[in-house]
Amino acid sequence: MPVIRGHDVQEAAHWLAQGRLVAFPTETVYGLGANARDEAAIAAVYQAKGRPGDHPVIVHVTGVDAALAWTTTLNEQAERLMAHFWPGPLTLILPRRADVSLRITGGQETVAVRCPAHPMAQQLLQAFEQIYGPGAGVIAPSANRFGQVSPTHADHVYDEFADLPHPSIYLLDGAAAQVGIESTIVDVSAPDTGVRILRPGHIQASDIERVLGEPVQQRAPTAAAQTAPTHPPIPRVSGSLKAHYAPRTPLYLFERDDLPTLLKENNNQSVAIVSCGELNEHSDNDTKHTAQTSQPAARQLIHYEAMPAEPNPYASQLYATLRRLDRRGFDALWFERPPQDLAWAGVNDRLSRAAAAFS
Ligand code: TXA
Ligand code: MG
Fold first, then answer.
1. Domain range 3-227, CATH architecture
2. What is the pTM of this model?
């Protein structure tokens, strides 16, 4: 049995101490955890995910004191952000201590550290710290195969790894992850050159600026955001490795005004149309629709569904929606492009990357 499901946090902590893998809920997404001081266990996480070795992972700790086992110094910015946002969905990039494995950092001189707020994650980290002693930490990338959509439910994790031949994983079965997209990553390792947001998330640039009292740099909304197509061509087969957070069904973004044209152009496709907020006429129903063309039997099955019009509930549902729609065998998923303002940065980042896989 490659995935064993349970609720026993003590048992899970012992798995970690034995060098085995534990999947656990956090407030953002489920993570696939291993003892961050155990090279073989770290390697097993990379192997289970199929993740390239040069992609660094995040060390999860119980709090600020525990973070000091991973970084050389805490500068003022780091201290402020930790005091304000920890425990919570914020990852800090810090200078690594010399004894932190380069396998964790992807060969870099910085290390990513996060203190999750989810009670089960906290209990697990504390139980593991009790067993391991000072210096404990748990690496935990999102508990999905590399390039796939991150898991927000225990069932998603089970689906990802159920066919894994080796090693086995203990899956701590918790409720759905509430935030729904991965933590905001902030680089405070070189404050002289400024504080930078490397991955947008639930905690926004404006929240961070307010706490620091200084402007932060946002990495440009990724090359993916600019290349994501708004007018879907005839759907192509996926398979490109630049796919990230991507479903297997081709995903495209559209502007609401273009919807009538898109529907007209796509005669024979079975598609899911996912609006941002309600569409006026259609929502949450399947419509059998015979296209008005002279060609016989040009039929399309269109499924309409509405996502929330607000960024936090939207983020909370996004990955579960992608996974659910991905299983239904549509030719394509069309997502309405959400507003381009900063409150939507996290959602827009994930959607554009998913769409970029099919551009
Ligand atoms: O919400 C989250 O952060 C979840 C939960 C499980 O905690 N974890 C997560 O891990 O999203 P993962 O491995 O899927 O994403 C980690 C991200 C990657 O984009 C990686 O490039 C970045 O963190 N990262 C890790 N160490 C870094 C470093 N030293 N410098 C820059 N980026 C780093
Ligand atoms: Mg991930």
1. Alpha-Beta Complex (3.90)
2. 0.91
